[in-house]
Write a structure and sequence with these properties.
- It is built from 32 helices and 19 strands.
- By secondary structure, the protein is α+β, with helices and mostly antiparallel strands.
- Bound molecules: manganese (II) ion.
- Manganese (II) ion (MN) binds next to loops.
Length: 716
């Protein structure tokens, strides 16, 4: 059983006296709160945090990490609280312990294999500090080492989670020994028969293998010595799980697995060039197998692993796998990210290491200046994944999104229809607006309504390209539909002026000629052009009208006839407050009941003005279209009004009461007093549903005794 003194021994070489005292203090704290708790093995619970701290100490991690190892289960499993930990050990350790508590609450369902990657990323993203993951991994190593005390179903679950989640995490962080140990332990519990069989068969030939290993090692060692390269040769059996996987994947027997033993040349000098020299020595000795050479020095693996790998035909015509690396590379290959702590403050990085750290830093996209390893590590966020956010579906699937994603992105990731019809979402069962930014670990449920459709505004909240393109698509289709309809209306109206019928014109060959002239492919295209305002209806219609008539189209008689003949069905119905093709002019703020006209702005649809808006006068007559109200849904529209009154106390309240009593909302009110003539001017912005309602409120205000006048105000 590991004791606290063992941990202090392990850390003595690299931690200061105060840091060691902090570790002792954490031990005492942990011992007191875990007092009386027992593990399934029958041992006191305290053995577990001590073992975890021991693993972290062997990895030569910093004091805060080892302290966190001792405290990692205190908040979740004992009466200890985060504030207590902050009080006793400071903010940094509180932060680490809190991070661990959060992660331990994520459970890995393992329902779908491809989800494992998302879970791994989620854990990385949720750990603002890499040390949180290192403690979690050490925790898992010890739990796996003592897995025999768990009931069988727990054994399976934990082993599966280890294989899917934690071993790959260790691998991603480059901690090879941990990956190997976790995989072999998981294998033992997940497939006990295959495990036992493999162990037995390997044991039978162990002596033979040892003999062979010794021989090959000797030959290589002699060669590199001969060429003056300093270093040693290692040879050891690959780990069980990797042998098993090879047999499974390639459908081969153990006898056919040629690379049971991996040979390694570890060179003393911190020079890459010597690795290549050693490679040429090996290739001169034994013939290399083509296509088996891999240069991870020139092109390191994603987890920063560096080495040369080659396979050669060995002394008995068998294949031999050889890895070549120097001491620095070797240390990195085994310790991975944890190797950072081995470079103590004050020791300058030599070029090789510097390069190594740079690569890792690039990998993790850490922007900050690298001052010392401790600071670097404590601030090291997994930026690679920090710009992603991971959320759950109600069924427990994990989905990954770019940071800033909203329920809209989530909805479109499920299905286009779900996106198009989404009206809201529940996050952790609470209703949120569509613009809500999703956070790591949340469960998201989309609320849809049949017949609902997207809005152009959604483009402001969507961040995934899928959602954006689907919304754009919808907007484009809708714009096109509306401009075709608008164009058709405009053409009909224009043809009517000349007593021509659009339907007849459409059957003529003349209209086909237009397609070429305006380079469009169909009638709809042509109508859309008119609707968009790219070409005027008049220009098209004039081509069907005899020349003399075309010139006289505007004479009073025709105009009068037009007035008589143009029924109210001509023009556009204004049905909604605003949509893709229709917007209300800000200068006159038309409300239902107002007499209105539409103005086609190029490519932007129709702007609706009141007939008497001063801005309408200067407009291009060709682009003015008839529009009329056709309100189905009740909407309110802002209107400004000015009330002039005799100044007296409580005036604003009096007028406001009248407005509110009619169930009209006041969105803005202002009072200006003019002491000179004892008058007050009240300005209001009210929201009314139509002109009738507005006129009613005007009349009601007029009745007030102190009111001199009341009028509607156009803002521009
Ligand atoms: Mn634990």
């Amino acid at each position: 059983m590991l004791r606290i003194t063992d941990i202090l021994d392990k850390t003595q070489s690299y931690l200061s006296a105060p840091e060691q005292e902090l570790i002792e203090k954490a031990y005492i704290f942990s011992a007191s709160v875990h007092q009386g708790q027992v593990r399934l093995s029958g041992e006191p619970y305290l053995t577990h945090p001590v073992e975890v701290a021991g693993i972290l100490a062997d990895m030569k991690l910093d004091a805060a990490t080892i302290v966190t190892g001792l405290l990692h289960d205190t908040v979740e499993d004992t009466v200890a609280t985060l504030p207590q930990i902050k009080e006793a050990f400071g903010k940094e350790i509180e932060f680490l312990v809190e991070g661990l508590s959060k992660i331990s609450r994520i459970t890995f369902g393992s329902r779908v294999e491809h989800q494992a990657e998302n879970f791994r990323k989620m854990i990385l993203a949720m750990s603002a500090d890499i040390r949180i993951i290192l403690v979690r991994l050490a925790d898992r190593v010890h739990n796996m080492r003592t897995l025999e005390f768990q009931p069988p179903d727990r054994q399976k679950f934990i082993a599966e989670e280890t294989l899917e989640l934690y071993a790959p995490l260790a691998n991603r962080l480059g901690i090879n020994w941990m990956k190997v140990e976790l995989e072999d332990l998981a294998f033992r519990y997940l497939n006990p028969d295959a495990y036992a069989d493999l162990v037995n068969r390997l044991a039978k030939k162990e002596e033979e293998r040892e003999q062979y290993t010794k021989e090959v090692k000797g030959i290589i060692q002699k060669e590199i010595d001969k060429f003056g390269l300093k270093g040693e040769v290692e040879g050891r059996a690959k780990h069980l799980y990797s042998i098993y996987m090879k047999m499974e994947e390639q459908h081969i027997d153990l006898n056919e697995v040629y690379d049971l033993i991996a040979f390694r040349i570890i060179l003393d000098a911190d020079k890459e060039s010597e690795c290549y020299e050693a490679l040429s020595v090996v290739h001169a000795l034994w013939k290399p197998v083509p296509g088996r050479f891999k240069d991870y020095i020139a092109m390191p693996k994603a987890n920063s692993y560096r080495a040369l790998h080659t396979t050669v035909i060995g002394p008995y015509g068998e294949r031999v796998e050889i890895q070549i690396r120097n001491r620095t590379m070797h240390e990195w290959a085994e310790a991975g990210i944890a190797a950072h702590w081995r470079y103590k403050e004050g020791r300058a990085y030599i070029s090789g290491e510097d390069d190594q750290i740079k690569k890792l830093r690039d990998l993790l996209e850490v922007q900050q200046e690298l001052k010392n390893p401790r600071e670097f590590m404590s601030n090291l966020k997994m930026a690679l994944f920090a710009d992603e956010v991971y959320v759950f579906t109600p069924r427990g699937d994990v989905k990954a999104f770019p940071k800033g994603a909203t329920p809209i992105d989530f909805a479109y990731s499920i299905h286009t229809d779900v996106g198009n019809q989404c009206i809201g979402a529940k996050v952790n069962r609470n209703i949120v607006p569509l613009k809500y930014e999703l956070q790591n670990g949340e469960t998201v449920e989309v609320i849809t309504q049949a017949g609902h459709h997207p809005s152009k505004d959604w483009l402001k909240y969507a961040v995934t390209s899928r959602a954006i393109s689907k919304i754009r698509n919808w907007v484009k289709t809708e714009e096109r539909k509306k401009s075709v309809a608008l164009g058709k209306d405009l053409l009909e109206k224009e043809f009517k002026k000349h007593n021509l019928k659009l339907s007849q014109i459409l059957k003529s060959d003349e209209i086909k000629k237009m397609y070429t002239e305006y380079s469009v492919g169909s009638l709809d295209d042509l109508m859309a052009m008119v609707g968009y305002g790219k070409v005027s209806a008049k220009r098209i219609v004039n081509q069907f009208v005899p020349e003399e008539e075309a010139g006289t189209a505007e004479i009073p008689l025709v105009a009068e006839e037009k007035k008589r003949k143009a029924p109210s069905s001509v023009g556009i119905s204004i049905t909604d407050i605003e949509d893709i093709m229709v917007r209300f002019a800000r200068c006159c703020n038309p409300i239902p009941g107002d007499e209105i006209v539409g103005y086609i702005s190029r490519g932007r649809g129709v702007t609706v003005h009141t007939v008497n808006c001063p801005n309408v006068e200067g407009m291009d007559a060709e682009r003015i279209v008839d529009v009329q109200w056709n309100i189905k849904e009740k909407q309110t529209y802002p209107v400004h009004m000015r009330v002039v009154c005799r100044d007296k106390k409580g005036l604003l309240a009096e007028v406001s009461t009248v407005i509110s009593s009619m169930d009209i909302n006041i969105s803005h009110a202002e009072v200006e007093t003019r002491p000179a003539d004892m008058q007050a001017i009240l300005s209001f912005e009210v929201n009314v549903s139509d002109l009738q309602q507005f006129n009613q409120v005007l009349a009601a205000i007029k009745k007030l005794k102190s009111v001199i006048s009341v009028e509607r105000v156009k803002t521009a």
